[in-house]
Design a protein that fits this description.
The complex is a heterodimer of chains A (112) and B (113).
Chain A: E1 4-6, E2 10-14, E3 19-25, E4 32-38, E5 45-51, E6 56-58, E7 62-67, E8 72-77, E9 86-93, E10 101-102, E11 106-111
Parallel strand pairs in A: 2-11
Antiparallel strand pairs in A: 1-3, 3-8, 4-5, 4-9, 6-7, 7-8, 9-10, 9-11
Chain B: E1 5-7, E2 10-13, E3 19-24, E4 31-37, E5 44-50, E6 53-56, E7 65-68, E8 75-79, E9 88-95, E10 103-104, E11 108-112
Parallel strand pairs in B: 2-11
Antiparallel strand pairs in B: 1-3, 3-8, 4-5, 4-9, 5-6, 7-8, 9-10, 9-11
The chains are: A mainly beta (112), B mainly beta (113).
């Protein structure tokens, strides 16, 4: 079926640098795209979402970019900190409040 | 404030045993979701409740899986005659109606021997 996937399984970044995590999706009918962060032993934590009628949305230190032409989603983290080390998942939803379809995840390792 | 809680955090079962996993959502959250997460994978949807109504159970992998939320608050995921392939982390999430921000519990790690 339709799925959401990621390009890179592991990303190592230097503390203070910016991180970019990429995601490809295949379901053109998706209306929402969401990024979650999961630390070891914990459940996923919501970071930011973007609706399909937008191409950019900013939060605190994070920016999500959506390119519907190539079905690509990215999460940018500014000034990456040790606390940003985690697995990041992109997910899609057909409508707000619906079930989420997750990708396989990218592990971000922040080097001091 | 209190988040989503799940119990037990860890469960070891012998193949063929029945297990029951509990989820206490955030008070006032109408929507409740169950997901299954295999090691190294993203969570996969199992089932969804709005209040006490189970609106979507399309992700339940077999009829051995059953979920309920009788009073629209606490939910229980039951797995009958557990198999080794049922070993995974079972995540519960709750949200306000129509909101994308789902609040996840810490999960129950089920190991079937």
């Amino acid at each position: 079926g339709e799925s959401v996937g990621l390009h890179l399984p592991t990303l190592s970044v230097q503390e203070g640098d910016n991180s970019i995590i990429n995601c490809a999706y295949s379901n053109s009918a998706s209306d929402y795209f969401i990024w979650y962060k999961q630390e070891s032993g914990k459940g996923p934590q919501f970071i930011i979402d973007i609706r399909s009628n937008m191409d950019k949305r900013q939060g605190q230190r994070v920016t999500v970019l959506l390119n519907k032409t190539v079905k690509h989603l990215s999460l940018q983290i500014a000034a990456t900190q040790p606390g940003d080390s985690a697995v990041y998942f992109c997910a899609e939803s057909g409508a707000a409040g619906n079930k989420l379809t997750f990708g396989g995840g990218t592990r971000v390792l922040v080097k001091p | 404030g209190a988040g989503v809680s799940q119990s037990p955090r860890y469960k070891v079962a012998k193949r063929g045993q029945d297990v029951a996993l509990r989820c206490d959502p955030i008070s006032g959250h109408v929507s409740l979701f169950w997901y299954q997460q295999a090691l190294g994978q993203g969570p996969e949807f199992l089932t969804y409740f709005q209040n006490e109504a189970q609106l979507d159970k399309s992700g339940l992998p077999s009829d051995r899986f059953f979920a309920e939320r009788p009073e629209g608050s606490v939910s229980t995921l039951k797995i009958q005659r557990t198999q080794q392939e049922d070993s995974a982390v079972y995540l519960c999430a709750s949200s306000l109606r129509g909101r994308n921000e789902q609040f996840f519990g810490p999960g129950t790690r089920l190991t079937v021997l």
